[in-house]
Design brief:
Blueprint: H1 2-6, E1 13-15, H2 23-33, H3 36-47, E2 51-52, E3 59-60, H4 64-83, E4 89-94, H5 114-126, E5 130-134, H6 141-146, E6 153-160, E7 182-187, H7 193-211, E8 215-220, H8 237-254, E9 259-263, H9 269-283, E10 291-295
Amino acid sequence: MLGALAANGGPWELEQEAVLPPDDDILGVIRWLHEPSLILRLVEAVERAPSTLDGPDNPVSEGTLRAALAAAGLAVQAALDLVNGRLHRAFLAVRPPGHHAEADRAMGFCFFNNAALAAEVIARAWQAPVLVVDFDVHHGNGTQRLFWERPDVGYLSVHRYPFYPGTGAADEVGEGAGRGATRNFPLAVGADDAVYASALEAGLEELGSRLKPAAIVVSAGFDAHAGDPLGGMEVTEAGFERMTRAIVQAAETWGGGRILSLLEGGYDLQALGRSARAHVASLVIPGERPAVTGAS
């Protein structure tokens, strides 16, 4: 991923490895959203590696805890840097991904919910609304559940439906104080650039107007690409560019242009690299060099 972003240069600052907070600090923030039992069970799964956690779609190796802590830590640090004005936009090329991880359950290759952690840091620090935008082909069930009753963190998802993980119907809109802060756009298999981007644009207008978010956090999955072997959609790099421009416009309208984007899915390496490069190029502010960083 970082190799694709480094190829032929680009108008961004590329960091191969970022400085992360201490593990205890990362774990402290993880506990804001995740149950301590999940952390303990992951530690135990690593001790008996190779193994799995909460099902066969979460394989665990000796390095899984270290990688999961690094991905979560990078999300936390980027959020702190945004809050403190040290960066305005960033793309985080992290693995493992996060948007399927629930409070007490690993799921879909996800152990800790990186995007949700970033959103939580910003919302707590500023006491202001944050919007999580998710264009991965799979619905981010974990992010939705974590903020289901929260009026201060909105969740917008455009995804294939019905499809894994089985959530994300249009009538899933949140509950209690959070009712209306969740918006899902389930799309049929084969959706192309126009269908996918139009849905995202409509959702941004609706939730942006409702929440007026101080920042936008993006779950940037590129498995809706036409070349992806799993997604079944027909989105191209041009579609990801259009969606990113819509996110930028929304961020500039309501949140001073502040965006943190975190890598989620993508299973064709060439399509993933091209799509991520198009996404990052569309995040660029004229005259500035947004950060692109990774940890694993």
